[in-house]
Amino acid sequence: MAARVAQASLFAVALIIGILLVGQLRSQAPAIELSNLSAQELSTLIENLAASNVGLGDSLADLREQIREYERREVDGQSTLAIGEEDLERIGALGGLRAMEGQGVLVRAEGSFDPKAVNDLIYELRNAGAEAIAVDDVRITARSVAVLGTSAIEIDGVPIDRSFEITAIGSRDGLASALGRPGGILRQLQQSIDARFEVVERQNLTLPATERDLTPHAARTVE
Amino acid sequence: MTRRLAPRSRSRFTRSGWAVSIAVALGLIGFVGAGQWNSSLARQEFITSAQTVLVRRAEQLQREQEQLRTEIEDAEARVLGFQESDAGSQTAQERLNQELAAARLATGLATVSGPGMVLEIADSLREVPPGESPTNYIVLVDDLRDIVTALWASGAEAITISGGLSEGVPAERLVATSSIYGVGSAILVNIAPLSPPYRIEAIGPVGLHDRLMAHPIYIARVAPRVEAYGLQFASEPRDELTIPAFVGNTRLRWGVPVGDD
């Protein structure tokens, strides 16, 4: 009897170890099947990840500096209002609530665009690290998408003409390279809809704040 | 006279009992493990050594990305803690905190709850007919972009995209700088590689699900692909969802708010 209990116990322990082992192996499997990507695709992915990680590292360094500043002021009994106000400006600028200025690119576009093509251009700039984008005078926020209006493409209810300008603040070189890469979005649109583009690098661009009210009505902050 | 089993017979039975128990347990482990390994091994046959190096580099960068984002999330929480406990002028601080909270809510930097919908889309399970492109039968970056465009146009106020079956994979909150980008068959959201099945959650005014299903972009672009190629698709409205705040790069490097010194 004791032997059978021991056997059953050993069986159960071995089974549990095996299940845990397989679970561990499964959790360590890559999130995407990288082995399915070609060498060129992997290189592009690596380039994107590396650039993103540099940005994340800079962001983390800034946050740590901000924390150190808060700690210094806390020790000295000083107000931290100024730090908070800088944060407010930064959050507003990134989200489109505030106008922004800086270097970047101006893209003059003309052609028989559809809403998807305009959205694809915006995504290309975002992926290249644009910190702010505007189409004509419409500041692009998270919720801004090009859709077919009653008679033209519209973004945030504002019609876009056959000729329009996209401005983006970010690395001039990085944005221009991303737009101009062989087989990239500009090449594709030039071939598919006979679109014409002029990409101009600028040292100083100014993008307006959004005129849209971004205050949500259904979503509420979780405390 | 009581008959007793010979000691030798009993020990033979005991040894074989142990052996059977261990063998069955190991057999089960092997069966489950083989199912996990087989698919990986089949793909491994076709990887060149150069690709192996690239795959390892990409995996390393993914791990670094996850680590950085975890640290950013912790640091943001600490900053929030300082802002909410400042010992300066209470009136000015309270006003600033309200403005910060409103700005975070409006721009995707706050965790939010509310009514909305959930949608899942995954690659087709159908066999690809001869002569047809296999890419038609997988979820493409355009599919996710179309769904997101239709959601924003339908009044969504907060959207996340997540991928894969693993527990603990963070959902990617979409903000003004968010990209949804394709690299081959891989889809990156906020430069984080995701794999199918893709899960999209959105908070918005009541009726969001119905508005999405009726939106021209969904009807003209998404629904036909689901129907024609058998992409796996499911969606439903939800009375209450919680969507996490964006975690990522929120620092300005190339631009400044207008009016800054």
Which helices and strands occur, and which strands form pairs?
The complex is a heterodimer of chains A (223) and B (261).
Chain A: H1 2-27, H2 39-76, H3 81-95, E1 100-110, H4 115-127, E2 132-135, E3 138-139, E4 146-148, E5 153-155, E6 158-160, E7 163-169, H5 172-180, H6 185-192, E8 196-207, E9 220-221
Antiparallel strand pairs in A: 1-7, 1-8, 2-3, 2-7, 4-5, 5-6
Chain B: H1 7-44, H2 49-84, H3 90-107, E1 112-122, H4 141-153, E2 158-163, E3 172-173, E4 180-183, E5 186-189, E6 192-194, E7 198-203, H5 208-214, H6 216-229, E8 232-243, E9 255-257
Antiparallel strand pairs in B: 1-7, 1-8, 2-3, 2-7, 4-5, 5-6
What does it look like?
The complex is a heterodimer of chains A (223) and B (261). With 223 residues, chain A is of the alpha+beta class. Chain A has 2 domains: 38-94; 99-207, Alpha-Beta Plaits (2-Layer Sandwich). Chain A has helices at residues 2-27, 39-76, 81-95, 115-127, 172-180, 185-192, and strands at 100-110, 132-135, 138-139, 146-148, 153-155, 158-160, 163-169, 196-207, 220-221. In chain A, the strands form 2 sheets. In chain A, strands 3-2-7-1-8 form a 5-stranded antiparallel beta sheet. Chain A has a 3-stranded antiparallel beta sheet with strand order 4-5-6. In chain A, a hairpin with a 2-residue loop joins strand 5 and strand 6. Chain B has 6 helices and 9 strands. Chain B has helices at residues 7-44, 49-84, 90-107, 141-153, 208-214, 216-229, and strands at residues 112-122, 158-163, 172-173, 180-183, 186-189, 192-194, 198-203, 232-243, 255-257. In chain B, 48% of the residues lie in helices and 20% in strands. The termini of chain B are far apart. Chain B is globular and about 80 Å long. At the A-B interface, helix 1, helix 2, helix 3, strand 1 and helix 4 of A face helix 1, helix 2, helix 3, strand 1 and helix 4 of B.
